[in-house]
Each structure stands twice: as structure tokens, then as C-alpha cells.
Specification:
14 strands
């Protein structure tokens, strides 16, 4: 990158994670002023020179999703108009990712709309984690690095030293992720067959695979309302499973999700900190794994022009 300095900015969605990333890189977050006008419009002002600099803007587009997307766009535009050399949008959790295709007539492909807006505003690169649908990378015409939280989770699971383990995918779509986990911890694999009558409502049908007398680890990219996952635990217990653990990258946790998860009967619930867990979402048996070192290392390599591919294991 020559003499270009790195500048690290944080939006308001996950400042604690941004601080952790900055600490990993041995630097301070750059100064930016984020506020609201009386009518609710977002205001942004970069408080230091970014001319010719390599700018990274850290912002998860979690709830309130639209506000956080708008804030990200304004930060990108501010950096662009202040003559930043390159702007990387670091989006640990990419909102709207579940709306990645037309599932019925006359509906938008919202993930594509968000990709268009971010790109058009002036981002040169995207750094994200565990996109709900890998094909979203193709919605952009700029480089997209989609990091994988699995290595951090696998290391955590290995340290639990469990016997007779089966990794479980809550649906067929997550089978590849579950298979990757299972191969790396030398465990069995099971899949929950479910039918979804409409959005956010899932009816669990049956378990494909042997879970009798096994310790089960449910893995998925996110948990939103918690209903599906609670039903999965019931289905596993019905099939004779012992303890049930779960790992989710993104703790979306809408509405009554924390209550549902708390009452589902998990031995342990594990999230990463792509989305901050506020006090309302606190659960008793939860461990939160930090993905800051992974993002910090990816940012360092991108800045130095080094290969990032080894982080995609």
C-alpha cells in the first residue's frame, strides 16, 4: 500500500467490536461525529484528514437495519468526498441477506438493492462474515471477502471435549456448513427436515440421521425469532439426544427470541459478536466468541496487499 495510512472508523451499530478490531491492529479508531437532526435525519462528519488514505468503515447492518445502512452510506460518501484513496465497508452482519431471490411473483430482491446502493455510493470493497446466501457476493461488481466464523467455533467446540457428538443442521440449506463442522471435529451429521408454511414460521417434521444418546451441536448462520431452533431441540430430544448445544454466527434475536431460546433446553448457546447482545437479549447459558481477531487480520492483510484466502477455511 506504499505510504498510504490505514484509517479505521466505526458506525454506531457495534462500537465495542470496532474497538476490539482496533486493539488487535494496535491502533486507535479514527474520529467521526455521528448524530441526528431534530427531524431524525442522520448527520455524519469525519473529524480528521483522510486524503489519500486507506479507509475501513465498520458497521453491522443490524436492527434498526435501515438506520444503520443509511449511516454506513453517509460515512462512505463522506470519506469519498474527503478524497480517501480506497474505502472498504466492513459489514460483520449483512442485513437483508435473506431476501436474496424472488420466492414469489412481484417481490424485490432486496439484498441486490442494498448491494447496489452500497456500491454506487462509493465503496471499493466489502468485508463481511457468513452471508446468509453466498451468491450475494455476485450482487456486487467490487471485491467481496466473506469471512467464515467456523474456525473460531470449531476451536471452541473442541475445547468442550464432548463424546459421541453429532453436528445438526436445522435445515437442508445449512447442510454444507454442518458437514464442514462435522469433518473438522470428527463428528456425525444430522439434518432437520422442516416445512415452512410462511415467513418466520417453521414446522419441524423429523430428524434425518442418528442422534440417539448423542451430544448434538446445532449450527446455523443466524437465529432470528428462535421458534425454529426451539422446535429443533424438541425434535432432537424426542429422538433420544443427550445434551444439545448450538452455535450461531449472528444473534439477530427478534421479539421473544431470547425467551424462546432460554426455555428451549440448550446446554449451552454460543454466538459471535457480529451483532451486539444488549441487556434485553441477555441469556444465562450464553458464550459470546469475538470475531475481532479474524476481522482485524483480514483488514491488516487487505491494507498490506497480502492474501486473505487462508482466512476462508
Amino acid at each position: 500500500m506504499g505510504d498510504r495510512m490505514m484509517k479505521l472508523f466505526s458506525g454506531s451499530s457495534n462500537p465495542v467490536l470496532a474497538q476490539e478490531i482496533a486493539r488487535y491492529l494496535g491502533m486507535e479508531l479514527s474520529r467521526i461525529e455521528l448524530g441526528r437532526f431534530k427531524d431524525g435525519e442522520i448527520s455524519v462528519k469525519i473529524k480528521e484528514n483522510v486524503r489519500g488514505q486507506d479507509v475501513f468503515i465498520i458497521q453491522s447492518t443490524c436492527n434498526p437495519t435501515n438506520d444503520h445502512i443509511m449511516e454506513l452510506l453517509l460515512m462512505i460518501d463522506a470519506a469519498l468526498r474527503a478524497s480517501a484513496s480506497r474505502i472498504t465497508a466492513v459489514i460483520p452482519y449483512f442485513g437483508y441477506a435473506r431476501q436474496d431471490r424472488k420466492v414469489e411473483p412481484r417481490v424485490p430482491i432486496s439484498a441486490k438493492v442494498v448491494a447496489n446502493i452500497i456500491q454506487t455510493t462509493g465503496a471499493d470493497r466489502i468485508l463481511t462474515m457468513d452471508l446468509h446466501a453466498d451468491q450475494i457476493q455476485g450482487f456486487f461488481d467490487i471485491p467481496v471477502d466473506n469471512l467464515n466464523a467456523s474456525p473460531i467455533a470449531i476451536n471452541y467446540i473442541k475445547n468442550l471435549r464432548l463424546n459421541s457428538v453429532v453436528v445438526v443442521s436445522p435445515d437442508s440449506g445449512g447442510a454444507d456448513r454442518a458437514r464442514f463442522f462435522a469433518q473438522n471435529i470428527n463428528a456425525g451429521l444430522a439434518i432437520i427436515d422442516k416445512r415452512r408454511p410462511k415467513a418466520n414460521i417453521a414446522e419441524v417434521m423429523h430428524v434425518i440421521g442418528d442422534v440417539n444418546e448423542k451430544n448434538c451441536i446445532l449450527v446455523d448462520d443466524m437465529v432470528d425469532t428462535g421458534g425454529t431452533i426451539a422446535n429443533c431441540v424438541s425434535a432432537l430430544k424426542k429422538e433420544g439426544a443427550r445434551d444439545v448445544y448450538c452455535f450461531f454466527t449472528h444473534a439477530v434475536l427478534s421479539g421473544e427470541a431470547p425467551t424462546k431460546l432460554q426455555g428451549a433446553g440448550f446446554k449451552e448457546i454460543v454466538f459471535t459478536n457480529t451483532i451486539p447482545l444488549n441487556d434485553q437479549k441477555r441469556l444465562d447459558n450464553v458464550d459470546v466468541l469475538s470475531i475481532a481477531p479474524l476481522f482485524g487480520e483480514a483488514i491488516r492483510r487487505i491494507h498490506n496487499g497480502e492474501s486473505v484466502s487462508s482466512l476462508f477455511v
